[in-house]
Write the structure tokens for this entry.
Amino acid sequence: MRLSKLGGKEIVNLNDGGRLGVIADSDLIIDEKTGRILALLVPDRRSQFKFFGDKYEIEIPWDSIRKIGNDMLIIELDENNITAKKYTY
């Protein structure tokens, strides 16, 4: 599957049915040596306190992806493993 085909798909957690975002809003973490995708970075929509310029994202390991469908990407993550990190670019 091409990366362009992933754009616009919703990310849904299999464990709780929660919607984490849309692939179009996400970034990829890629291993520079092998070219493999390591994780998706999804903007954290749960945070209520956002400061100007701060960007918090949830890192979803690529091996947590269970199914890529026509309209959504299904992942399997425990709620305890979903933490937002601050990234600067």
Q: What stands out?
A: The first strand starts at residue 10 and ends at 13. The helical segments are 3-6. The chain has a mean pLDDT of 81.
